[in-house]
UniProtKB/TrEMBL annotation:
Pfam families in the cross-refs: Maf (PF02545)
Family: Belongs to the Maf family. YhdE subfamily.
Location(s) in or outside the cell: Cytoplasm
Active site: D75 (proton acceptor)
Organism the protein comes from: Clostridium porci
Record-annotated site: Important for substrate specificity: R18, T76, Q163
The protein's name in its UniProt record: dTTP/UTP pyrophosphatase
Cofactors that this protein relies on: a divalent metal cation
Length: 202
């Protein structure tokens, strides 16, 4: 599936080691070039928010890339009802978020933008969002406090990492597991395949 990517130098517009590891599963060693754009969205719906932010990141990095580069930008949020939960930053905020999520179901949205740099400032690209439903077991106050204080949730959307200690509290998921980690690999491969086919037809 990824053989037809090999003609492009793949750049990941993200500092996330988890996204780099996910691409490595596909045999792709991406060059890491985090975007420094100030992330801001006026969208209200989670899927629209992550698509807009992924596009901002990809476009920011693509502006400095040469022809033959494939730039991948991504953004992930956790949504509980109409509330979007970003990265907590502090153990106290992590506790509050996990307390909201425990014993309930929520959604994880990842927006992805793929840009093919064609030279002379031109790009051919696509943006999409993937959704996964996550079900969390009920947790005691002690369990929430212990996880919030362990350091793992501070830089993660929704204050948890499904591939880390929080796996002990995941009852199940409906959708793509890799999407919850930060990059929906199956959907990404299908979209890149279509993108490259569209380019060949132009």
């Amino acid at each position: 599936m990824t053989d037809n990517w090999m003609g492009f130098h793949v750049v990941l517009a993200s500092a996330s080691p988890r996204r780099k590891e996910l691409l490595a599963q596909l045999g792709i060693e991406a060059d890491i070039r985090p975007s420094h754009v100030e992330e801001e969205s006026w969208e209200k719906k989670p899927d629209q928010i992550v698509m807009e932010l992924s596009r901002q990141k990809a476009e920011d990095v693509a502006a400095g890339c040469c022809e033959g580069t494939m730039v991948i930008g991504a953004d992930t949020v956790v949504a509980l009802g109409n509330e979007v939960l970003g990265k907590p930053g502090t153990p106290m905020r992590a506790y509050e978020m996990i307390e909201m999520l425990q014993g309930r179901s929520h959604q994880v949205f990842t927006g992805v933008t793929v840009l093919l740099c064609l030279g002379r400032g031109k790009c051919h690209g696509i943006t999409f969002a993937e959704r996964t439903d996550v079900h969390v077991y009920p947790m005691t106050a002690e369990e929430i406090a212990a996880y919030a204080a362990c350091g793992e949730p501070l830089d993660k959307a929704g204050a948890y990492g499904i591939q880390g200690r929080f796996a002990a509290y995941i009852q199940g998921i409906a959708g793509d597991y890799s999407n919850v980690v930060g990059l929906p690999l199956g959907r990404l491969c299908q979209e890149v395949k279509r993108l490259l086919e569209d380019r060949e037809d132009d």
